[in-house]
Amino acid sequence: MTAIRALTLDLDETLWPIQPVIERAEAELHAWLRQHAAATAARFDVPALQALRDAVALEFPDRAHDFTWLRRESIERALVLAGDAPELAEPAFEHFFEWRHRVVLFDDALPALQRLCGRYPILALTNGNAELARIGLAPYFVGRLSAREFGRGKPHADFFHAACSQLGLTPDQVLHVGDDWALDIEGAHGAGQPSAWICRPHHAAKPAWAQAKPWFEGADLLQLADRLGA
Question: What percent of the chain has pLDDT above 70?
Answer without folding.
Answer: 99
